[in-house]
C-alpha cells in the first residue's frame, strides 16, 4: 500500500508520496559499523593474549612431552619424544626429583595460606578503620597504598638490604637497640628465610586487599550501621552481621586473585634469595625455574609447569563452584 501526505498550498491540496513507502524502512548506515566496533576494539587485546599467553603455553605443553636438555637447545624441535616420562619423574615422590617437588609444593601451600590470610585480615581491618572520619584520613589512605604502588623489584631489593645480617636495619633494631636476640640472626638463609619471604609478601600484598575492601565498603549504606547502633549492636557485631555478609561477593573475588598471585609468585623469592632459594623458602615457581635453567632439563621443568597449571585450574574450578553454591543458598 502506498501512503501519501496531503499538503495545503494556497487554496489547493497537493498529494505527496512518502519517500519511505517504496523502499521500506531504512537501516541506519552506521548500525553495522556500530555492531562491529566492540569486536574491533577487542582485537588488539585478543591478539596480545594469544601471542603472550596461549602460544607460549602450547609450546610449553609440547616441550613437556620431549626429552629436551641442553643438547637440543638450538633446535628443540629435534629433541626425542619422551611421552609421559617427564610427568612420571615429576610425580615419583620416592625419587629425588619428585621428593623435592613435593616439598616445594607443600611449602608453597603453607606460604600461600599464611600470606593470603594475613593480607585479607590486615586489608579488611584497615578498610573498616578507614571508614571513620578523622583528621588525616586522606594522607593515611595514601600511605597505605605506597607498597602497592612501588615497583616490585625496587621494594624487594630494599627489603633484602634491610634483612642483611651485619648491616641490615632489622637486626639493628632487634639486636642492637632492643636486645631481643643473643646474636644477629640470618634472615636470608636457613629457617628464617620463610619468615622473611612471608613478611615481604604480606607487606606488598595487603594494600591490594585494602583497596578492594575499601571499594566494597562504599556500597554499604551508612543507615544500616546507624540502625544497628540504635539497636545496641557493638562494633564487632556490626562487622560480623553487616560488613562481612555484605562483602561476600567482593571477598570471593579477592581471595581467588590473592591465591593465584601468591601461589605463582616468582619475583619475590628470586629477588630476595637469587637463583637458589633456601629449602624453607623454596616456592614451586622458583623450584621449576631451577629445574629448567640450572639443570638444563626443560622437558621436566615444562612437565612441572603443566602439573602446576592443572592444579590451579582444579582449585579455581572447585572454589568457584563452592562459592556459587554458597551464594545461591544465601540468596534463597
From TrEMBL:
CDD domains assigned to the protein according to its UniProt record, in alphabetical order: TM_PBP2
Subcellular location: Cell membrane
Coiled-coil residue spans: none
Transmembrane segments: 36-65, 105-130, 142-162, 194-217, 246-263, 302-322
Alphabetized UniProt keyword annotations: Cell membrane, Membrane, Transmembrane, Transmembrane helix, Transport
Membrane topology reported for the UniProt record: Multi-pass membrane protein
Protein origin, superkingdom: Bacteria
InterPro entries according to UniProt: ABC_transporter_permease (IPR051393), MetI-like (IPR000515), MetI-like_sf (IPR035906)
Protein name: Sugar ABC transporter permease
Similarity comment: Belongs to the binding-protein-dependent transport system permease family.
Region entry Disordered, spans: 1-27
PANTHER family in UniProt: ABC TRANSPORTER PERMEASE PROTEIN, INNER MEMBRANE ABC TRANSPORTER PERMEASE PROTEIN YCJO
Annotated ABC transmembrane type-1 domain residues: 105-319
